[in-house]
Amino acid sequence: MQPVRIAPSILSADFARLGAEVQAIDQAGADWIHIDVMDGHFVPNISFGPPIIKAIRPLTTKPFDVHLMIAPVDRYLDAFAEAGADTISVHVEAGPHIHRSLQHIKSLGKRAGVVLCPGTPAKSLDYLLELADLVLVMSVNPGFGGQKFIDNQLKKIAAIRKMIDASGRDIDLEVDGGVDHDTARRCIEAGADALVAGTSVFKDGPDGYARNIAGLRAG
Ligand code: DX5
Ligand code: ZN
C-alpha cells in the first residue's frame, strides 16, 4: 500500500491570508488540499463556495479534495468542477439521489467521492462502490473543525477496507474529523490510506505545518 496521503483542511487556515496559507501547506508537504464547503442547511455552519476555490486554484498544483456538505447538491456540481475541484465528495445523507450525483461527477471527468456521517452504516456503500474513487468516513459529525474523534468509526473504517479490497477497485479510504497523531495511527491500522486534518496541522502556525504533516503521515 502507498504511504498515507495527508489532506490539510483549509477550514482551519487564517482566511485573511488564505492564498499564503494554501502555498504554505503545499510547501509543507500536503498531498491534497481538503476544502470543506458548508451551506448552513445540511450542516449548521457556512464556509465558502466555488469563487474561493477558483481564486486559490492557480496557487498550487496539489489536487483539490472538495468535501461538499450541502443539500441539494446536484445543481452545484458543475460549478465546483469548473472552479478546479479534482475530487468531489458528496454525502450519502444529502439527498435521495446519491447514485445520480456520483454518475454526474464522473461525467464531468472528476474523481467521485462518497461520504458517510458517523451514524451511517458501511452497508450504505453496497451499490455505490462501483462508482466511487474515494470513500470518506466522517469521524466527527460534520460542520465544525476541532471536534473529538468518535472511536466507534474505527470499526466502520475496517469494514470498508474489507469492502474495498473485495471490490478489486482502486478506491481511496479517507478519514475526516479529530485526526491527530494518536487517532491517525489508529485510522491507518484500521485501513485508512488518506487523512484529513485541520486543527492538528494548523494549530502551531506556519512554522509547524511541515512537522505536523510529517508526524501524521508517520502514524
Ligand atoms: C468537518 C470538516 C473537517 C474538519 C476537520 O465538518 O469536514 O474537514 O474541518 O477539522 P479537524 O481536523 O479540526 O477535526
Ligand atoms: Zn471535510
Automatic annotation (TrEMBL):
Signal peptide: none annotated. It catalyses: D-ribulose 5-phosphate = D-xylulose 5-phosphate. SUPFAM superfamilies: Ribulose-phoshate binding barrel. This is Ribulose-phosphate 3-epimerase. Its cofactor is Fe(2+); Mn(2+); a divalent metal cation; Zn(2+). GO terms for biological process: pentose catabolic process; pentose-phosphate shunt. Pfam families: Ribul_P_3_epim. It comes from Sphingomonas jinjuensis.
